[in-house]
Amino acid sequence: MYLLGGLLAFSVLIIVHEFGHFILAKLNGVKVEEFSIGMGPKLFGVKGKETEYLIKAFPIGGYVKMLGEEEQVLDSRSFSSKSAPQKLSIIAAGPIMNFVLAILLFTVIGSVRGFQIPVVDKVENNLPAYEAGIQKGDKIIKVNNKKISTWDDFFTQVYMANGGNLNITLLRDAENKTLNITPVKDTKENRYIIGIYPVVLEKPGFSKSVSYGFTQTNTIIKQTFDVLKTLVKGKVSSNDIGGPITIIKVSTKAAEQGLIPLMAFAAYLSVQLAIFNIIPFPALDGGWIFLLLFEIITRKKIDDNKIGIVNYIGFAILMTLMVIVVVKDILYPIKL
């Protein structure tokens, strides 16, 4: 049951993403030939008026196939016949829908469960925060010149410092105070701490829940780009990289914890899916967005057949990488 819950949550992210492409294609008068959830062999499908809706064997993605997407087609309803701004709206709709889904999920989570804010509620005696003079009611504004909007922002900066010095800016009685604090290792939790606990809004109103939805999504975006930076710098071990199997495992564990943890993981994953798709690589939405922005700025049309060839090559590379990651997932799984 939990496995099905995890698969369902992951599938919802794909459906929402592809629905963004689908609905904007329809609004722009583009014929959609296929709407697929999953990849690989076809399990079953339903033929609509002009679109075939498919479920495929491997729940690791999906796609919307539009007339004239991969080559020039002389048809008023083809993707290739549309203007660059129209194409851009269709392509960008997928990632945007994933960001919107994350905001909605975090809003619901905040309204039901409440959420932590970067305001100090309790200070542990004889720990760095106490010794530095942090007090109950202090609002954390910045850590190491990074703006703090959520408690997760603060937690991330402590984690990223890895025991190094923290330059913390606080708001107290309408005045800013800056403190330098060195975290200590909590051997039980195996992480660095300074000894403070946040205020928890247990019954936030609608506006505060919506605000939390936006700020928490923004926090996940910043965390993701921080991880990408460390990945580019080669500071991430291959043991920390997982693929579809890892995602399903984590989704299943989240489902075991209850609906709210599963929703939180789905929101987190929705942001990851959006960001991954806007990477400017052929066959990804980001590759299309880059080319279309180039067309809009330079007013120079790029040959659709050439774009199709480049996207085909990009897709082949992505599928190869996917196979490698899946094999790694099977042979060297991440320990959860």
What number is the mean pLDDT?
88
Which structural category do the helix and sheet elements fall into?
alpha+beta
- Give the overall form: elongated
Helix content: 40-55%
Unreliable residue runs = none
Q: In DSSP terms, counting alpha (H) and pi (I) runs of 4 or more, how many helices?
A: 9
Number of domains: 2
Distance between the termini: 19 Å
Secondary-structure element series: HEEHEHEEHEEEEEHHHHH
Spatial strand arrangement across the major sheet: 5-4-6-7
Q: Tell me the total number of β-strands.
A: 10
What proportion strand?
A: 15-25%
Radius of gyration: 23 Å
Family: Belongs to the peptidase M50B family.
Domain PDZ: 102-174
Cofactor: Zn(2+)
Protein name: Zinc metalloprotease
Structure description:
The protein has 336 residues and is of the alpha+beta class. Helices cover 52% and strands 22% of the residues. The chain contains nine helices and ten strands. It is elongated and about 75 Å long. It starts with a helix and ends in a 5-residue tail after the last helix. The chain crosses the membrane at residues 88-109, 258-275, 309-327. It is found in: Membrane. It is an enzyme of class 3 (hydrolase). This is Zinc metalloprotease.
